[in-house]
Amino acid sequence: MAGNSQEYISHHLTNLTFGKLPAGYVRHNEDGSTTELTESTWTMAHGGDEAAAMGFNAVHVDSLGWSFGLGALIMFLFWRMAKKAHTGVPSGMLNFVEMIVEFIDNTVKEAFHGRSALVAPLSLTIFTWVFMMNFMDLIPVDVLPALFGAMGVGYMKVVPSTDVNVTLGMAIFVFALMIFYSIKIKGIGGFVGELTLHPFNSKNPVVQAIFIPVNFFLESVALIAKPISLGLRLFGNMYAGEMIFILIALMFSAGIALGLMAGVLQWAWAVFHILVITLQAFIFMMLTIVYLSMAHEDH
């Protein structure tokens, strides 16, 4: 059971990966035989070991597919609601969408202290997109992998925000916007001055020259820590939540008593997790607004 449990957990945490295996790599086939590659080969990975051997060139097909698909779904939904918008009292889905838009708009007005036409739509995109990616965590862990397995797809992780590549990718995009607006608003000199003249400053040029490398080190670490913490916070919370769902699912095969307990635990964790997925989407959006607001502040 321990071996089966380990394989079960490993399978659910392995991405559907496409990449390039190096020449000389020995592949282990399902029938127990092995095949040595005579040249570098682009292929789907047959497990975590092959995915690791692909290195940086590996692409997580499932994470990209689900994230792009959910993004397209959100755009379609908002496009449909925009076409149905009217001056009367909204109802149904239109009312729900307008509530979200109004909530995001008010949040941006309160937290963002600059002037930019990008921040509000970016915040709306981030909140809804991250929420939808997180929401996939509420689908029972065996349903979609089993469905794709029946179609011959060996691995399928359906929660993009449990993939650190996805969360750090979004965080790096926010970081790029921070740098862009910092330079645009403050200029190159102002941006460099923020990195070299704070937090320690002195009117004495000799003392200031000593402080510059210290300031640069401290400010650079603080600047780089922002996207790293932004991406890892979302990844860590969602990965932990997914792991708990997987562990609960294991209990269903351990007998009737544990199966009944697992059903109760799964329901309770799912209810609590609704708050988690919403909160994590809000935190990612809120920190994005705050970071962009700081980039717009010209001292």
Kindly list the characteristics that best describe this protein.
299 residues, mainly alpha, 70% helix, 6% strand
Task: Note the topology.
Elements: H1 2-12, E1 17-21, E2 26-28, E3 34-36, E4 41-44, H2 48-54, E5 59-60, H3 61-84, H4 92-111, H5 119-135, H6 143-150, H7 164-196, H8 205-251, H9 256-296
Helix pairs in contact: 1-8, 3-5, 4-5, 5-9, 7-8, 7-9, 8-9
Give a verbal description of the structure.
It is a single chain. It contains 9 helices and 5 strands, in the order αββββαβααααααα. It is mostly helical and 299 residues long. The strands form 2 sheets. The protein has a 3-stranded antiparallel beta sheet with strand order 4-1-5. Strands 2-3 form a two-stranded antiparallel ribbon. A hairpin with a 5-residue loop joins strand 2 and strand 3. It is globular. The chain starts with a helix and ends with a helix. The mean pLDDT is 89.
| Strand order, largest beta sheet | 4-1-5
**Tally of DSSP helical segments:** 9
Beta percentage is: 5-15%
Q: Determine Rg (CA atoms, Å).
A: 24 Å
Can you summarize this structure?
The chain is mostly helical.
